Amino acid sequence: MEKRVMTDSKRRKGLMAASALLGGVLVLSACSGGDSDASGSSSGKKDSQQQQADEAAAKKTSEADIKIAPKDGSDNASINNAAKVTVSKGTLTDVRMTTADGTAVAGQISADKKSWKPTNQLERATTYKIAAEAKDADNRVAHENASFTTVSPSNSFIGNFTPEDGSTVGVGMPVSINFDKAITNKADVESHITVSSSSGQEVVGHWFSANRLDFRPEEYWTGGSTVTLKLDLDGVEGADGVTGVQQKTITFKVGRNQVSTVDAKTKQMTVTHDGKVVKTIPISAGSPENKTYEGQMVISEKFKETRMNGATVGFTDDDGKGEYDIKDVPHAMRLSNSGTFIHGNYWGAKSIFGSVNTSHGCVGLADAKGANDSSTPGAWFYNNSMVGDVVIVKNTGDKTVAPDNGLNGWNLSWADWKAGSAA
Fold it and tell me: Is 216 part of any domain?
């Protein structure tokens, strides 16, 4: 009996323990389930608090949205229009642009304070940094920074052009552009260059080589007209991996119509204005052994005095020295790149002018040493001539000057000139 009682007692204790254990599990489960419900309520509260905090933080952040171009880290950026800062939902208060070494770059914020750009053209192969600041309607400040590098010289091309902006030139002056890289996409490049005249003359380009493009009308420019050259080459691919960087407009004036005709047979030069003779000057052209080129030539440079050394143009003696070396040639004006000039001559006898051709290929006019005697024919012609004036040389017995030897494209027919256009 005792043993049984004890067994029942142990069993009751075991059942109680099991009940307690189950109760504990149930409690734990209930707590877990209850915690899940509470957690949902607590999480929702936390989310609400976080949302309120986020909204509060957002209210403290400026709405001004700043954009900087080119994008941060860009390379091969344009030196013309790439750099720009704009803002929406606000106004710009400060923009600072510097080179990598800290040198400031001038710029200007627009009148409405919505944009900024540099004042001047940027440099090639240069890294620039921009720091911009703006405010929104509530005067909350926003900042933006970017850095970029402009196109390198090896990946870009420029065209060196003549005549210069604002100059006044003679009626024969072509627009001549010499590119610093060979151009293979000629049509694209030419189509982004326009030359127009206030006279309404048709102007066409002609490629002399992969590096040179000239423009002219069919006849000489109209005296008194204005010519405009527009280069819109920024980003234009001139060759594989090589793009243009120039974007500019230049204008020049055309002066009075002066054309001078040198006749090697009569040894006289007639100077005309609008076809009317205003002066006849005795000359001495190239000798029979060294004839002067024939053709239409354009004055490309003027020098009150210059040195002329025969060795530079192939006239040498047995010792290799120049057949002549005159260090103070007066009133010299270039007619070709190969050394043809019309210039004053003080060393020759006055009797040669108008009677005999004695030069090494140039056209000589009587002049005085020092280039200070304004009464000489050489001084008169120099003082009454300008770059771009036409000098026609005839009856020398020599060949016509090559159209690309100087600014002498007038020696091509209009049909041949137009055939050299790629547009």
Answer: yes
Please, where are the H alpha helices in 106-230? 186-191
Number of domains in the chain: 3
CATH number for the domain including 318? 2.40.440.10
pTM of the model: 0.77
Q: Which residues contact 105 (CB under 8 A, 6 or more apart)?
A: 97, 98, 99, 118, 120, 122, 128
CATH code, domain with 94: 2.60.40.3780
For residue 326, what pLDDT is reported?
A: 87
The pLDDT confidence band at residue 59, using thresholds 50, 70 and 90, is low
State which H helix or E strand residue 130 sits in: strand 127-135
Residue 273 lies in a domain: yes
Phi-psi region of 89 (alpha: psi -120 to 50; beta: other; left: phi over 0): left
Looking at the structure, do residues 241 and 118 belong to the same domain, yes or no?
no
CATH number, domain at 180? 2.60.40.3710
Beta-strand relationship, 226-232 and 247-254: antiparallel
Peptide bond into 163 cis (omega under 30): yes
- The domain of 318 spans 258-407
Mean pLDDT throughout 342-361?
A: 96
Q: How far is CA 1 from CA 5, 8, 15, 173, in A?
A: 6, 11, 21, 140
In a domain, 14, yes or no: no
Give residue for tokens 């009133």.
331
What is the token pair recorded at 340? 């043809």
**Which tokens go with 287?**
């000798």
Is the domain of 133 the same as that of 248?
no
Tell me the CB-side half-sphere exposure of residue 367, using CA atoms within 13 A. Answer: 28
- Identify the sign of the CA torsion 410, 412, 414, 419: negative
Reported as type and span, the H/E element at residue 203 is strand 203-207
